[in-house]
């Protein structure tokens, strides 16, 4: 997933996507402990996508606070 796609989403959609990614990561980690994964690279890609979601959410939070300070 690209960061530009995440920026087009609403904050609630990004949070929902983040939740889905974390759930998928958890399931893959469980499978990895029990058996060999067909695509172990998927775990790395999930970590990167999770970080992108968190970065976009944090940037929006910082932007909202700066706008709040300007208006106060």
Q: In words, what does this structure look like?
A:
There is one protein chain. This protein is mainly α. It has one domain: Helix Hairpins, CATH 1.10.287. Helices cover 85% and strands 0% of the residues. It is built from 3 helices and no strands. The protein has helices at residues 3-8, 11-34, 41-71. The radius of gyration is 16 Å and the shape is elongated.
Write the layout of secondary structure elements.
Elements: H1 3-8, H2 11-34, H3 41-71
Give me some keywords for this one.
72 residues; mainly alpha; Helix Hairpins; 3 helices; 85% helix; elongated
CATH topology: Helix Hairpins
| Number of helical elements | 3
- Structural class determined from secondary elements: mainly alpha
Beta strand % = under 5%
Low-confidence stretches: none
Q: From the alpha-carbon coordinates, what is the Rg to the nearest angstrom?
A: 16 Å
What general outline do the C-alpha atoms trace? elongated
